[in-house]
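Action item from last week, closing it out:
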Amino acid sequence: MLKTILSQVKEYKLPSILTPLCMLAEVVVEMIIPLLMASIIDKGVTAGDIGHIKTTGCWMLLLAVLGLIFGLLGAKFGAQASAGLAKNLRQAMFERVQTYSFSNIDHFSTAGLITRLTTDVTNVQNAYMMILRMCTRAPTTLLVAMVLSFTINARLASVYLVAVVVLGVLLFLIMSRTTKHFKQVFQKYDALNASVQENITGIRVVKAFVRERHETGKFHAASQNIYSKFLSAEKILSWVSPLMNFTVYASILVISWLGANMIVSSTLTTGELMNLLTYCMNILMSLMMLSMIFVMVTMSVASVERISQVLQEEPDLVNPENPVHDIADGSVEFRHVDFAYKKDADKPVLRDINLSIRSGETIGIIGGTGSAKTSLVNLISRLYDVTAGQVLVGGRDVREYDMESLRNQVSVVLQKNVLFSGTILDNLRWGDENATLEECQRACRLACADEFIEKMPNGYDTYIEQGGTNVSGGQRQRLCIARALLKKPKVLILDDSTSAVDTATDARIRQAFAQEIPDTTKFIIAQRVSSVAGADRILVLDDGAISGFDTHEKLLETNEIYREVYESQTSGNGDFDEGSDN
């Protein structure tokens, strides 16, 4: 887990090395200054030697400047290393997510991934900065100050040793109790982000149904959970400061009392006592720093685990060793295909699917909600792999192809149409980044999108808001179809992607497909019989199995499910789902 995180230091190794070196140099300088101070008191002030005071004072000033320089350099290099690590972690996580299959993405919620890319990475960044600087400075200061203290007077230095041991044990007990609370906090962050994301995405629905108060309550509950967990952790951590202060002042009192008696008995000089008190503060401040490090590291451990989960998640779908890049044609074949989203599922989503579809055919797919229509077409572009059997495109198993080449030739317009912020042309060129304006216009004509684009003030340069919120559902669907057509695919899959389009426009789109892309194999998933009636053949799915596969006319004669759907829609008595339940 730690190795996974540190592997992202990469080009920031040098600042990661220079930071602790600068911290070590700063500690050395700070440890020498109390020795010079003791010399000024014992050999300068007591003896009345002004020359010694001036000379030693100049050395102290020089060392103070050096300490300042080393401290600034340590801060600079530490910031470079920690910010660089955070940048690389975000980049690595984002790139990793891009390699995930749909099943990998199902392991993480969208809000969970966002939390990992933001809050968790920030925690690791802060912890790394703390470790490079404080984790070098604090133990070194403690060790050097302890050694020098024992060199001056072992009896008084033993007071530090006792204080360090007692305080160390108490800090360990406190930190061990807070770890579990911090682990739970970041799980609660996922719920908070999910609430925010869902609310902002669906803000129009929230306002339409006057659910602002309900959504505010949900957010308050998620925020309250985080507050409660942090409060539990902070209640435990609140003991750290009082314990530190008590130990510091108790040590100073004991050393001052014992040191004063030693000065009276001439076994200790005033300068040595001042030296010991300075080292006392150094030792105890080092312990304070270590306690801060423990807090930060404790918080970041949970974040490190969550980031590592994303980086170590192995994509379920990978290219074969020698992938095929060329797809002969748009023929599609299913051979005894079973499919389940989870390997341990009690019942497969698709069962023993056998289909043979010629290149250039138009295939309609119809079925009730949950009949696995989308699951079926997802297998063609290898968004998921079959559990059993084979799916062939162009006469070869889809697992033999290079996935990028396959998906460039099997274009899918999914149920949830997504447009991205940018102009209409920017969105269209997701299909082909090198497409000319003329090619984009042709694709839009085929998708019947040109009619509304030309009415917009800026035409194809009209800016689309994130998610396509400034265009209607039907317009969004047609833009997504045009985008898919620009890929010039051998197989085109429309997954219920004309549901928001009126029947006349739907008919024109299907007619344009038949005339302009006759060699492209077309799969049209629809709830309306009118959308698939003109297809070469129609596949009727029922609970993951094939109920019928034939022309519109023959299915009316032979397939009861299809006939009920047709009658319910043509008689005006309801939609598909109502008809299929009768």
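Closing note: The CA atoms of residues 499 and 526 lie 7 Å apart.
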